[in-house]
Specification:
The chain is an alpha+beta fold. It is built from 5 helices and 7 strands. It is 19% helix and 16% strand. The strands form 3 sheets. A 3-stranded antiparallel sheet has the order 5-6-7, covered by helices on one side. The N terminus is likely disordered. Bound molecules: 2-acetamido-2-deoxy-beta-D-glucopyranose (3 copies). This is Carbohydrate-binding module family 50 protein.
Length: 188
């Protein structure tokens, strides 16, 4: 039976209103600047109206669930890298800011996946390689990021990378521990 409620539930996409995909509250003060300043307004019952940016040639979407992380999404599909997920979705930040119940792009026709979804622990990336997710509050001037393995301590990272361990919190948003599966700043 047709009802007003049914109509509402089926309402998903709204036309391309120019909107800002980055609410002030989620903007970081460091390098995490919007990669595009115009987006598509997306409205749904669960998400309300929000602004998101996606490739025009996107062929597959995934609706983010509450509690999802980039790593969990990457592991669920196991067919794209987390850096690629970030490149497809300019509404995401390097911290992996994602809004629940909003679709993100997970494929384009030109993309070929080369496993794994994240490089091995200990790998270094520069910013241009799109390390995702980075620890929150990393300084603007970070030159190299390292992906943190299980049980990795800041003094080990300092010794291996030749920096003073007292610099770790200064470079990594005052964090006193290195977060497993995140990229930490190890050179600045
Ligand atoms: C990954 O898998 C999902 C689910 O099968 C699919 O919709 C999507 O197109 C795939 N993406 C890539 C990059 O292969
Ligand atoms: C590390 O930095 C602290 C604080 O700036 C300083 O007291 C200490 O001497 C430094 N250690 C080394 C090995 O340079
Ligand atoms: C780190 O702590 C200092 C001193 O409390 C504070 O000024 C600074 O804003 C903090 N930085 C971050 C990224 O939280």
């Amino acid at each position: 039976m047709f009802s007003k409620f049914t109509t509402l539930v089926l309402t998903t996409l709204v036309a391309t209103a120019a909107c800002s995909p980055f609410p002030a509250a989620v903007l970081e003060t460091n390098t995490l600047v919007p990669r595009q300043d115009k987006g598509t307004e997306y409205c749904s019952v669960d998400a309300g109206c929000t602004c998101t940016v996606r490739p025009s040639d996107c062929t597959a979407f995934y609706e983010v669930q509450a509690g999802d992380t980039c790593l969990a999404i990457g592991q669920k599909f196991n067919n794209f890298t987390l850096s690629q997920l970030y490149r497809w979705n300019p509404s995401m930040t390097l911290n992996c800011y994602l809004q629940a119940y909003v679709p993100i792009c997970i494929n384009t026709p030109w993309y070929t996946f080369t496993p794994p979804i994240q490089p091995p622990y200990g790998t270094h990336y520069t910013l241009s390689q799109d390390p995702v997710p980075i620890m929150p509050g990393i300084i603007d001037t970070c030159q190299e990021y390292e992906i943190v393995g299980p049980g990795e301590r800041t003094d080990q990272l300092a010794a291996e990378n030749g920096f003073n361990v007292t610099d770790f919190p200064k470079w990594n948003g005052n964090a006193t521990t290195a977060w497993q599966d995140y990229w930490a700043c190890v050179k600045a």
